[in-house]
Every structure is written in C-alpha cells, then in structure tokens.
Amino acid sequence: MALSIRQAAPSEGVQWTRDAFRLFLRRPLPFTAMFVAFLLVALVATLVPVVGGVVMLMSLPLLSLGFMLGSRAAQNDLPVHPGLFIEPLRGERTRRNALLTLCTAYALCTVLIMTISEWVDGGAFDRLQVLMAKGDEARVEMEAVLNDPRLMSGLVTRFGLAALLSVPFWHAPALVYWQGQGVGQALFSSTLAVWRNKGAFFLYLMAWAAVVFAFGLLTALLLGLLGMPQLASVLGVPAGLVFSAVFYVSL
C-alpha cells in the first residue's frame, strides 16, 4: 500500500488543541460520558487478578480509536456514545484481527516497560502510590521514599519509555481500521508521521502543558482569593475528566 503523509505546519499543533476544545464543547456530555464509561469498565476489569489488568492495557488502543470515531461523528452531527469503542471490532475480520494483534502488542510492551521501571526504582513508585493512599499516617515513610534517588530514575525510565511507545501507536489503530494497513505497516507509518511532523507535535504538547498550567494557576489564585484553597482537590476530579476527554478528542 502506498504511503502518503501530509506535512503539517508547526503551528497546526496549537490548532489541534484549540479545535479539540471547540469540538468537545459541541458535545460535552457525550464525550465525557465516553471517557467515564471507559474508566468504569477499566475499574471493573482491574478487579480480576492478572487477566483484568492485561485486558485493560489491551483496550487502550481502542480507547483512542473510539474517540477518533466519536470526533468524526460529532463533526458530521451524528450521535456520540460509548458503543463506538467496540464498533471497530464489528468490522471486517482481517482488520479486526489486526486491531486485536495491535492491542496485544501494546499490552505486552506496556508490561515490559513497567517491569523495567520497577527494576530501575526497586519498587519505589509502587510503594509511593500505596503510601499516598494512606494519607497523613504514612507521611514519614512517604518522605523516605521521595528521598530515594532510585525513584526519579524509575520515573524518567517509566515516562520516557511510555512516550516512545506512544509514537508508533499514535496513528496505528486508525490506519488499521480505516486504511486496512497491517500491524507492522501501521506502526511504521505512525512512527514516520510523528517524526516528519515533530514540530507540530512539539507545539501540540506545549499547548497542552500551557492549558493545564494555566488552569492550575488560575484555579489556585481564584480559590486563594476566596479563602477556599481546600477545594482545589475537589475541582481536580471533574477537571481531570474534562481535560482527559478533550485530549482524546484532539487525537
């Protein structure tokens, strides 16, 4: 299959983020419902030992593809709903099998990244998550973990490898579903597309960082003026849901 990659101007990276908010505001409740539905299914899946976690990881490429289908539906004034997540699995068998292979590869790579990261930090990141859930009663232990130099090395490894993994999988589900590409070709095409448009993707990431930073700063200032800084954690939950949904819309 011939490969044709459009060269995006760097400034388009900012436009992708801006357009995502505009499209989200056309269907805010359906898009948010899609993300919440996925979180609920993922939560139920993680209750099943081992297998549930693997299935949850396998579903992440379908999460991005589902939101791509939702965004296209919103652009064409069609319904946006959680059922779009499984829509790709109802299609032609060859493409469905390729998608499932892609999902399996993503899960295996993610498990490998987690294993390497745990080896680097000696399990410090996992211990930190457990201690944070305990709250103030584990403050002393938490400080000890935060002072562990292996924690930072593990975080750099974890997020660095995760960022690299996102490159080949960024467009791969869509290329399999819409273009009928095989798994290998889709991963290669996605990697090449991200690399050739690295300027646009860099500004895209910077735009998202600016949005999150600006929201956090304005929220802190406003709540500080109102004398209610404790509400920051309360507002963080709905804000996180909205920003996550908009991010997937931006794909």
Topology at a glance:
Blueprint: H1 12-26, H2 28-46, H3 51-58, H4 60-75, H5 93-121, H6 124-134, H7 139-146, H8 149-169, H9 172-179, H10 183-196, H11 198-225, H12 232-250
Helix pairs in contact: 1-11, 1-12, 2-3, 2-12, 3-5, 4-12, 5-8, 5-9, 6-7, 9-10
Can you walk me through this structure?
The protein is mainly alpha-helical. The protein contains 12 helices and no strands. The protein has helices at residues 12-26, 28-46, 51-58, 60-75, 93-121, 124-134, 139-146, 149-169, 172-179, 183-196, 198-225, 232-250. Helix 1 (12-26) packs across helix 11 and helix 9 crosses helix 10. The protein is globular and about 60 Å long. The two termini are 23 Å apart. 25% of the residues are buried.
Question: In brief, what are we looking at here?
Answer:
The protein has 251 residues and is an all-alpha fold. It has helices at 12-26, 28-46, 51-58, 60-75, 93-121, 124-134, 139-146, 149-169, 172-179, 183-196, 198-225, 232-250.
**Low-confidence parts, pLDDT < 50 over ≥5 residues?**
none
Task: State the total count of DSSP E strands.
Answer: 0
Following the backbone from N to C, one meets helices and strands in this order, namely: HHHHHHHHHHHH
Average per-residue pLDDT, rounded, comes to 90
Estimated share of beta-strand residues: under 5%
- Share of residues in helices: over 70%
Structural class: mainly alpha
Features:
251 residues, mainly alpha
